[in-house]
Write a sequence for this structure.
């Protein structure tokens, strides 16, 4: 195993550490994932194609990916100012706000799901006034988006906040001294620095949202073709003992989200390089 | 990190109030209102009903199972996190980036798919299903499946927290200890562990919170047998779907309490870590 080492070290434990890490990773993560792809391999291309292009499945992709994209974008729109407030202003309760931001990560998704449903149901605290304005939230794609905004928010803020905190206020001061307006400073000095982190945050929020189940199923209403997300469709197929369908759907959505992540990683690397260049 | 900046002088007057109002409203809707809903809905039928929902035998069985799953998953993933972080940060080897990527993999896999892969592996129709049945072993729709699914979804948490911390610390201190004759384990327990203890604690808190709150993955492998394979989050779902909202929110309040406790502990750990870094830098200057 020490053959793998690029540089000799006097520290012990490389062989044991690598062996244990690989063994545990293989047993718990890779072996089960391999089972998924092995199973879908035995299905045959035609069968897989039939499953993943069924109208109900295509509709679920539209809802899952569409709502996730919108939710991640909303989180950028609100998450960036939120991170800016936390990084640049001093105010009482700042630590509390900072801790509260992680609630969506710490709160079990099922609890988030029933709570948001109660809040946005037609008779809920926010649902009732919105209903009288003619806006239906619960049991519509809008409700799904609200749940995804909730769970995605920390991913954006937590990625952007450290960058803003590390970004020296000197740059902004220099820009201000040189006569830049506030808006120019924000768009030409601050934004290029946080663009990479924003894309990362967007990606993380999006990736989490596409696979999200617990917080969405309660508020979604789960009507086929209208408010049925892909993860729920996988569960439905499993409950109908349609193992082939569940496998094909699981493998395909895994591949789609990997392709998406890879693409956005490339985009992010592009901006990181640009940032490093000047 | 916080300092008054000259940018304030060019900042239009409307900016600060607008930012505070917008972010305040956003946080109120996403954080404060949900917390209030849990408490009010949970107590809608009074303390008596709240207590009977919380002390119901089915709820107690769900609490036991949730604690059991976390009690197995968290130590296993902590041990893995330590081993992985040590290997990745203290050595430079071929395949290091690949290993890092693979550790992050469970983050981008839907919890539902995590459950699905175990059903495909251990279920009756699964790869190992017939063998398991012949030996009278049940994993899916039983406790082992729930534990496995919990391990899968909480797999990266400790490693992800530890890797940046140990990366920042480098290898010099450990190398010095070795040169001075300390054994490998002594080096780890006396040099590395004190340096990473807050990061480790932080990772364990996150891992535990997720382990106790996991829903999607556990839901797929559980089979929802009341009193047997029902965890707390699944119990919340069952009660909610039976339109027993007060009981559902009462049980949900337990999980909310757990989440708040995790957040408080997390803030404390972060604060202690900052204090120690501060005193350490003071000591050297």
């Amino acid at each position: 195993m020490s053959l793998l080492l690029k540089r000799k070290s006097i520290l012990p434990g490389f062989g044991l550490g690598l062996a244990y890490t690989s063994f545990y990773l293989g047993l718990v993560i890779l072996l089960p994932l391999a089972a998924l792809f092995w199973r879908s391999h035995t299905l045959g291309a035609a069968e897989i194609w039939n499953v993943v292009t069924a109208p109900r499945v295509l509709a679920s992709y539209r809802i899952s990916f569409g709502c996730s994209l919108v939710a991640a974008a909303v989180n950028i729109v609100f998450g960036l100012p939120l991170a800016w407030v936390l990084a640049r202003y001093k105010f009482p309760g700042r630590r509390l706000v900072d801790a509260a931001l992680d609630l969506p990560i710490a709160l079990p998704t099922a609890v988030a799901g029933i709570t948001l449903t109660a809040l946005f149901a037609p008779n809920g605290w926010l649902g009732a006034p919105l209903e009288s304005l003619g806006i239906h939230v619960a049991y519509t794609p809008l409700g799904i988006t609200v749940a995804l905004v909730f769970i995605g928010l920390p991913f954006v803020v937590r990625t952007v906040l450290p960058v803003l905190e590390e970004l020296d206020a000197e740059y902004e001061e220099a820009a201000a001294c040189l006569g830049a307006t506030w808006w120019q400073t924000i768009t030409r000095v601050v934004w290029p620095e946080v663009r990479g982190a924003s894309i990362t945050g967007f990606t993380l929020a999006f990736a989490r949202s596409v696979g999200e189940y617990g917080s969405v199923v309660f508020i979604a209403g789960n009507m086929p073709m209208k408010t049925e997300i892909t993860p729920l469709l996988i569960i439905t197929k499993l409950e109908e003992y349609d193992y082939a369908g569940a496998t094909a759907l699981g493998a395909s959505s895994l591949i789609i989200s990997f392709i998406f992540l890879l693409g956005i990683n490339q985009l992010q690397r592009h901006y990181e390089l640009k940032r490093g260049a000047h | 990190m916080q300092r008054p900046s000259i940018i304030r002088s060019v900042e239009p007057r409307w900016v600060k109030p607008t930012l505070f109002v917008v972010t305040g409203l956003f946080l109120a809707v996403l954080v404060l209102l949900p917390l209030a809903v849990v408490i009010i809905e949970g107590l809608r039928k009074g303390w008596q009903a709240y207590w009977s929902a919380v002390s119901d035998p089915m709820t107690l069985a769900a609490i036991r199972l949730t604690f059991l799953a976390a009690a197995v998953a968290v130590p296993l993933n902590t041990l893995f996190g330590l081993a992985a972080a040590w290997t990745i940060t203290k050595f430079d080897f071929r395949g290091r980036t690949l290993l890092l990527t693979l550790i992050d993999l469970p983050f981008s896999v839907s919890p539902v798919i995590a459950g699905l892969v175990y059903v495909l592996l251990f279920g009756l129709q699964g790869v190992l299903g017939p063998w398991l049945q012949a030996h009278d072993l049940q994993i899916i729709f039983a406790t082992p499946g729930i534990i496995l699914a919990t391990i899968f979804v909480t797999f990266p948490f400790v490693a992800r927290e530890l890797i940046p911390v140990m990366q920042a610390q480098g290898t010099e201190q450990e190398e010095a200890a070795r040169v001075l004759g300390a054994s490998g384990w002594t080096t780890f327990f006396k040099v590395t562990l004190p340096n990473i203890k807050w990061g480790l604690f932080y990772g364990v808190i996150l891992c535990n919170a997720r382990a106790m709150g996991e829903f999607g993955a556990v839901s797929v492998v559980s089979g929802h047998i009341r009193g047997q394979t029902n965890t707390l989050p699944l119990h919340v779902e069952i009660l909610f779907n039976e339109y027993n909202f007060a009981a559902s929110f009462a049980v949900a309040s337990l999980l909310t309490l757990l989440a708040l406790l995790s957040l408080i502990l997390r803030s404390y750990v972060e604060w202690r870590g900052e204090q120690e870094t501060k005193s350490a830098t003071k000591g050297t200057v």
